[in-house]
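[Automated response] Your request has been received and processed.

Submitted sequence:
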Amino acid sequence: MKLVVGLGNPGEEYERSRHNLGFQVLDRLAVRHGIVVDTKKKKSLIGRFRFGKERVMLLKPQTFVNLSGEAVLYMASFLRIMPENIIVVCDDVNLPFGAVRIRKYGSSGGHNGIKSLIQFLKSDNFPRIRIGVGNPPDETRLENFVLSKFSTDEVSALDPVIDKVCDAVQYIIDGDMDRAMNEFNQ
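Generated structure:
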């Protein structure tokens, strides 16, 4: 079984914000597979589907991003899923807008949600897909920037990026991490 985690903050006020890009990718994956991610289970919303022979659970932690590790650890422990079978999708302010970076494992890169996952899972050995949201303008605090909503132009520009990330997730689920990295790392 694979656990695909989209990082984001719960609540309507955060919908479509930069920090909720992981949730947006999971929503698109859910549409592709004809499911919804709306079943409440221990501080998370989940949805399930099969991809080929693989069982897949989509998980949106309902903690804030910085505390995502708690919800992910609960589900991973409950389902006996090892970290290497957890695929995480998140925003990244250190990447140019729309850039995609896929890694098999590694540090948090300064992302507090990834830092929480590493802390709770006691491992950094999980694949992650980062999507660039760009840097905040000089006068904008980082916290305000990641919680801000995308402009109409940015939403349009992100649409094909979200599709690419969904393709990458499916390659990783299918066991083809190298193909995902070769095709989508920019």
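Summary generated for your ticket: The chain has six helices and seven strands. Residues 136 and 143 are 9 Å apart (CA to CA).
If you did not submit this request, please reply to this message.
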